[in-house]
């Protein structure tokens, strides 16, 4: 696909205790906001630093290790559509699309160094333009 390349911006907990994932356009000012579970947010945040532990520390770490054992590579995470506020996301593994939740895709992308893309249609339909100051 590759459409628009996105970068991890942050996971935020709102005043109403909802967890929100923010992804920002690599070469622009638009963001995607996805409401995710608290455990999804924790999985993403635990992958931000790269860890470096000898043993897998999470299911996502284990999945990346298991994929490498069978010579499978997480090539990218593709956000292909948004229906009724739910992002339809695919994990690209050795040329195959595997449907996944956006939080799982981002958690795996952070651990494997894979890029995150969103279709231009998704960005045009549901992205929001924020200034860096308004994200804080």
Strand order of the largest sheet: 6-5-4-7-1-2-3-8
Q: Rough shape?
A: globular
Strand percent estimate: 35-45%
**End-to-end span in angstroms?**
31 Å
List the helices and strands and how they pair.
Layout: E1 4-13, E2 19-25, E3 30-36, H1 38-48, H2 59-69, E4 74-83, E5 86-93, E6 96-100, H3 102-112, E7 116-118, H4 120-126, E8 128-129, H5 132-135
Parallel strand pairs: 4-7
Antiparallel strand pairs: 1-2, 1-7, 2-3, 3-8, 4-5, 5-6
Helix pairs in contact: 1-3, 2-3
Quick synopsis:
By secondary structure, the protein is an alpha+beta fold.
Written account of the structure:
The termini are far apart. The radius of gyration is 15 Å and the shape is globular. Helix content is 32%, strand content 38%. It has an 8-stranded mixed beta sheet. Helix 1 packs parallel to helix 3 and helix 2 (59-69) packs across helix 3. It contains 5 helices and 8 strands; from the N terminus they run E-E-E-H-H-E-E-E-H-E-H-E-H. It is an alpha+beta fold. The mean pLDDT is 89.
